[in-house]
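cache lookup: miss for this entity combination. No prior model stored, computing from scratch. Input as submitted by user K.M.:
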Amino acid sequence: MQKISARNMVRAMVGNHAVAYAVMQAKPQVLAVYPITPQTTMLEKLSEYVETGKLKARMIRVESEHSAMASIYGAAVAGARVFTATASQGLLYMTEMINWAGGQRVPLVAAIATRAIASPWSILDDHQDFVSKRDAIWIQMMAENVQEAYDLTLQSFKISENQNVLLPVMMGFDGFILTHTMERVEVLPDEIVDSFIPPREFNLVDFTDPVGIGPVATPEDYIFYRHQAQRAMERAKGIIDEISREFQAISGRTYGTIECYLCDDTEYLLASMGAWTGDARVAVDRVRSRGIRAGLLKIRTFRPFPKERVRDIVKKVRKVIVMDRAVSYGSGGVLASEVRSASYGLDVPIHSVIGGLGGKDVRPLHMEKALDDAYSNALEDERWLL
Amino acid sequence: MMFMRGNAACPGCPIPRELDALLEVTGEKTVLVVPASCTTVILGDNRGMPSKVPVVHSAFAASPAIASGLKAALNARGEKATVVVWAGDGGTGDIGFASLSGAAERNEDILYVCYDNEAYMNTGIQRSGLTPFGAWTTTTPLGKKERKKPLPQLIAEHGVPYVATASIAYVFDYQAKVRKAKDILGFRYIHLLSPCPPGWRYDSSLTVEIAKVAVETGIWPLYEVEKGKFRLTSISKTLLDKKKRKPVTEYLKLQGRFSELTEEEKGTIQQEVDEMWEWLAKMESSNS
């Protein structure tokens, strides 16, 4: 348990309100949000902050998610700090502008309350919406609990606006599981947040030196820009860790691209991302108590994928069991394929366990069983928790 | 000259002149938001820019929303500038219609100019919702069967402070409208009929002539709706008397896209123009 700093305030907040609170403290000047379950209560809270003057920002009540992303893109190129939030179908509807913003490498922050994609309809959680944006030139991070959702929202603004990064950031947190669950949250005082996230200084719309933003590119230029984006992603890994250390200094809480639990002597490594990482921790503890040396790899940054750090951990273990809440159909579990790719050439079997799609309940029991089966060589390459 | 010569427009294309006439009025403190359209190409690649003002290129459906956010950011920074969306008919009336209607309903403080060349010209002359009845396009090879979407009226119905139509053949009228729109707070909309030599199948020397005949035949009435008050402008004021309007055939015969029309179809077009003028007369008299 980390030391609680005396100056920090402890509150009980649902995830949507915790993210809204962090956004208010980050002082964006322009917000544009369209309601979608399970993000809606965040939008309502932000509207309340703006209407009561707690947050001095223009809230653009747009007619669609496509326009939500377009509006904050327009505001961001003209120098404002901006925010939006969405989920599921909204994220898909926003996708054209998600890529547009990523392509121009404009600092933006969007919170994604993850939710299954239709059809058939489901308002419940999985990660399919979130991982489907993996090629959009956005930094993507997933929170494990409400505290992380609050903390990562603050860090997102700083990461996005870092001059060596300049990439939009998507802060994912599991729909309903975190958005609507009340947890204990330590919030930072406003003045600490102010010093952590100073006012933004990026502006592309300059009347004294006018430029075209996003014009037609020649093939030579186009691939050059894309290469620059890839390099920015690579640089971002180190900067995310650096900003995490700064954040640790003001909050006492540790962050970074990955987190490892009981990894020093691990033989059976459970890998996960998002809210069920808490369940994974329980499963690891249970099998440990029976003498199986299990450990947990929590992936916090999905893009850039922390390949090198994952590989360093995987090469020391006997087997990896990856928990996946999203599938690349015709290929397999999305996170599993990322871990496999990071582990290329290592002689370590990587098992994929797919579950939780459309809100299907997954418990520590299921993960414990997967670890036990891996131990007794009874785990399939790909297991669906139906 | 705010919009320079040496751009990538087709010969006879009115867009550079239309843009220049606009920027002459709005000045250096203007930001252009331009969705996918002929202007995207005219503005060229990132190696040079024919415009003396910042240009924010936009995805097809997004420009009114991008302009909304842009204006909000300029306000937050205390910067006074005119945000102008410069979009074609497809980006305005078809794929961009939801975001246009959203921005109009929110009464965003932006000036929206639709340069209407009546088809998807940038991709090679495919029909749009604003292609007129009877016109040939590559996707209506036998002529369009449906009517043109009445965009200025639809925007005016949102109750925005200013809506106007304009023509490059009547530059003073167009610039007067831009001047008026520039100083109005809220959503302003100007709809420019913008002839297209390759798309309309006419000789590139005839652009201004065609734009003029469109007004003289009454097919393209010049008017403005200011705070709900309707007013015909320029020579359109004199055309309420049907005898003063040239027959629409004068306009149709100049263009290859109407060459396959039957006499009956030409009659239909004339009849619809006459009916529109009855409506315009009512609008005009309702304010006197």
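stored under new cache key. Chain A touches chain B through 43 residues (CB under 8 Å).
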